[in-house]
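Entry:
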Amino acid sequence: MKYRRMLGISFLLALLAMSTMGYAKDKEKTQDAGRLLTGRVVDRQNNSVPGAVVYLSNTHTRAVKSYIIGQDGAYRFPALSLNIDYEVYAQYQGQKSDTKTVSQFDSRPQVNINLKLDLK
């Protein structure tokens, strides 16, 4: 009887340990995926600006990525580090949007920033 009780407790402890390890691995995968930055580039009337270029700068390394806007006006930068600040802005025909910052202290896994160009 005592042996069965110890075996049952051992089994429950092993199950608990395995479920905790699975949770830790899932959490680690989520963190490895990084952050997703999305948004749109629009003019003063909130119309999409196809052909605009969005620049994303890593403030730590100063590496720059760019994205050319399609007809829908949307941009997307996946898998950004959660531990680094980024600066993002758009340019089109000599016009530049305000520069926005994605802070490492912002814990959201997905950040949406719309960039406005002052086009005539």
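The chain has one helix and nine strands.
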